[in-house]
Amino acid sequence: MGATTTAGTLRQSGIGCLPALSCRATPGLTVGPTVVSVELSEALAALIGAVIGGVISLVTTVYVQRSSAAAMLLAERRSQERAATAAILDASAALIQLARSSDRDRDAESANKLMISIKTQDVADLAVRTRLEEYHKILSLANGVHQMTGRASTSITWSAANHAIEIIGAYRRGEKLPQPRPVWTEMLTAADEWLDINNG
């Protein structure tokens, strides 16, 4: 029925049917919407690709910026730490010279001990910083160590400073820290005992 109606419609419009073609209807043929659907899918795929590309680019940029900032911060900390250990070496060498001098310069000693205390806080490595804090404790409690061990204060300063120089030297060279010398352990123990007695 549908095919006859379609053929009749064509004849009435003056178009007619070509001899080589049948004037039968082809149900289900929707060319226009299919083309639109394909174009929409392609456009959507291109949009998704652009979004994904943008996200990847953004993530990469953020990662590179953060990595660069972290590297700069690490380099700054290493530079600061190296300057700090250099200052401690200089102060320790000065203390050794003062300990050897016949004329004791208490102001210079105090200044160098203070420098060691301040610069120790710029050392990031916990093991090194702990040893340097022990070093400063021995220096600042030299009189107490003298009372507990009978060692002269100049000997205490000289022994502690020399071992501290060994510690810093090994650290700056990237070597394993040396084991505490027996005299170092003795002086540190004496400093702690003196504190216990006087703060108890």
Helical percent range? over 70%
Helix/strand-derived category reads mainly alpha
State which percent range the strand residues make up.
under 5%
Shape: rod-shaped
Low-confidence stretches: 1-26
Mind summarizing the main beta sheet? none
Helix run count:
7
Q: What would you report as the Rg, rounded to the nearest angstrom?
A: 43 Å
Task: State the distance separating the first and last CA atoms.
Answer: 116 Å
Mean pLDDT figure: 82
User: SSE order, as H and E?
Assistant: HHHHHHH
Question: How many beta strands in the DSSP annotation?
Answer: 0
Keywords: Membrane, Transmembrane, Transmembrane helix
Transmembrane segments: 43-64
Strand-helix topology:
Blueprint: H1 2-13, H2 31-100, H3 106-120, H4 126-140, H5 142-149, H6 153-172, H7 182-199
Helix pairs in contact: 2-3, 2-6, 3-4, 4-6, 5-7
Question: Would you summarize the structure shown here?
Answer:
The chain crosses the membrane at residues 43-64. The protein has 200 residues and is mainly α.
